[in-house]
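Exercise 7. Predict the joint structure of the components listed below.
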Amino acid sequence: MKTKAFIKHALTGNEAAAYAMKQINPDVVAAYPITPATEIVQIFSKYVSNGEVTTEFVPVESEHSAMSVCVGASASGARVMTATASQGLALMHEILYIAASLRLPIVMVVGNRALSGPINIHCDHSDAMGSRDSGWIQMFCENANEVYHTVIMAVKIAEKVNLPCMVGMDGFIITHGMEVIETIDDEEVKRFISKRTPLYSVLDIEKPITIGPLDLFDWYFEHKRSQLEGMLQAKKVIPEVVEEYNQRFGTNFPAFLETYRMDDAEFAIISMSSAAGTMKEAIDIKREEGLKVGLLRIKTTRPFPYEILREKTKGLKAIGIMDRAESWSTMGGPLSIEVKSALYPLDKRPFAIDFVFGLGGREFPIEDAFKIIDITRKLSEGEEFPEFVHIGLKE
Amino acid sequence: MKKKILSLKELSERTYGLASGHRACAGCPFPSIVKMILGSSDYPVVVANATGCLEVVTTIFPYTAWPVPWIHSAFENVAATISGVETAFKALQNKGVMPADRKVNFVAFGGDGGTYDIGLQSLSGAMERRHNFLYVLYDNQAYMNTGIQRSSATPFGAHTTTSPAGKVIPGKVQHRKDITEIVAAHDIPYAAQASPSHWGDLIRKARRAFEIEGPKFIAVISPCVPGWGYDESESIELARLAVETCFWPLYEIDNGIYKLNYKPKNKLPVKVWLEKQARFKHLLDKPELIDEIQNKIDEKWKKLLWLDGKKVED
Amino acid sequence: MKFKSWKDLPEGAIVRDVPTSPEFKTGDWKSRTPKYIPEKCTHDLLCWLYCPDSAIHVKDGKIEKFDLDYCKGCGICASICPQDAIEMVEEEV
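Solution:
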């Protein structure tokens, strides 16, 4: 039941993200243009120019500097946001780790796009997967509506645990796809996110601190353990914040994992982002044909919901994991590797197969979703398959 | 009217600079440079530091020698980091979180590697965006922190571990970049060169820079005991000789107007400076290479004499 | 500032209550020691300015003491002093 009235807008994912940022009205935004996330910055700078936000906007000369400005500003106690994609995220890589280790709750929207080379501007997850061990909370949205609401929730989550948070949406598919978005009122957004209470600030003149000292072998390990505490805390805080949001606004967003038609499922597809939408449609059709298939959509990959996955895959005969990225391990994509290791301690594990699909924006038609369901079904019946297969590849 | 220069007594009442217990090499002059910069500010100072010797030796956890708020993020991004701090300050003042009348001077410290080389893009961006901060380059003319590798600040002929003086190649074969001119080309309100040996000039420059809104830049020569190869008691003397030989002219570009701040009565030949340093000792029997260094110095010196008192666009 | 475990560390790896470096003594680095000759001293404070280790203390514009707990024995103070009011003496081993 919706407790608050929504306002409906027809928006693309980029517009939805920018609109959420406008309502959040962060203190500082530093960003650099990059396809397919450029629009977020463009739209936001228009808000700045028209006085619709009071944010200080820093149009930097590179993504490396974008993240560096974010670090400096966030360490000064400001609420800070940015947006990027692909090569931009790769260029930020070094500073991502610093943002996380300094425990800075920067929120960044990522328009997930393939990494060069060859250069490609279209969707896959190689960018975000490349930064999965950087210490950021990572979330992936299925559609533009989820992007809008997740960006707002991300501010609160990040600031509660003092960790940066990446909100991913599929490049072009979501960033540029027009949808009806249900937004909440400006005041409601403000009330929900309230004010940031920083852990510390470099602008504290009365009680100066040193931020970013050198660790030798005597304390680096301990600092890393201390940082893990933030991620452990996030496992509690993410569901709390999402629950609070769902309660307050009558929404139904998952914290870590969405289950779809899993009740009596004998096998399941594990997917992320926009492909889950196509997969849901395919599952509906296959359910009509009598196949007992369900979907587990992973929303949050850092922290990784391994306990929930163990729980939700209990009793399944097979799982088919969908990876929109390569890991070059020769055993499939990064998501499958993590899902499989999550299930490793179970006495009875489902058969598992990985589907690498959609690289560089290769489309994911419903026929391919059927193919994935079909292979996973055969696997559940005992047929043998390689560790991973490519879907949608010109073989 | 604020005083342009300070006596050392006044400076000593304002700051002691870095606290004791830091791990800079014996005789390293950069703590003195930090002392002069911090002491020159009439307002609280917030410092960002690029990765490098200064950052490493002053903040080995849990020990920090910095008495003021200080942040280090990475090697190539100190100008972006201070941009973020300065922008947050502005944003928080505008939103009433920070008192509107509070004044803070923002200072970035970077070595030559973090300034001439890997940090040049970030510095250029921050200057173009007109952030309000003072960038202080401590120029020891090589990557000293990693063990004396050549940078684009390393002078022609200098031996470093990546431009070693060998049987065929006599040290670094390129001249150094003129960083002060590169920075000044951003048309920033204030750019200068200074030396710790000429402390009155350095303090006056820092105080002048702090008066101005916008990006400011001071390049300070910072001799390096192990990198240059001289006795650790002679750091300030080495800086002084760099000025007296006009290898490191003291000048400023204040709102476009060039000013030579010090004209040695007796301009010493560069050899006097070179022969005190182990990194140049292989040059001493190669007068043609010393001539090449001398010619480069003379050229720049002539240009500065001509520019003295002129505006860039004149 | 005695940390025993990771649980004691401030979040974000920051250092509070700065400066903390005086807890780390560098005086044992030196092989020569400054000998101060007060009679010759004019208190121009050049030694204070150029001491890299903040080991020369000044009070009311006058040299107060040389803090040998931190002096690394570089000898800049002696070499810079126009009055020769500081001499470097080899440390006895």
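Discussion. Chain B has one domain: 8-307.
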